[in-house]
Amino acid sequence: MVKNASSVIVLFAGDEEVKSQIKELYGLEDHVIDSMSAHLTGPTPDGAPLFAIHDVKGFNGKVMQEAVLTLGGLWMWSLCSTETDILIRRAAAERLGYWKGVSMLRDVYPAGEIGKDEKRFKDVLSRVTGDVGNAVREQWVRVFVDLLIDMERVDFKGLLEGRRPIDRDYLKKYL
What we know:
alpha+beta; 2 domains; 3 strands
């Protein structure tokens, strides 16, 4: 099957034995194998690097291409798998409907994760005292999503960065 393929996509170069097999099978030069090894670093939040080898029929040649397979923010949120981000996605979907909720998350967090903002938000909530503070900390995911939806983006980011104060009376409406 490999010998009849006109294009092959390589996502991982593997160890020296695999690189040697790829080199021999596709007739590649050492510098191509070195480039492929350097480029194929595994998936990242920016995408998955790939190396494509295309046979050019009738010319007895090859075209090689380094690329990054990316997913848009909507897919990143749809496919996210960390516990926190799943909970955030679920809360946004419950409040806005699935596609509208995921679209809103994509607009604010295009990488498909809230990242450091979880800690920032929990730090903000840790300064809220009394029963309201305890309740919002217990329901932090829903409160996070509700504030993200209801607040202007600049105010929400200001809240997370400590530039915008928040008080217990304001938070009561989210309980």
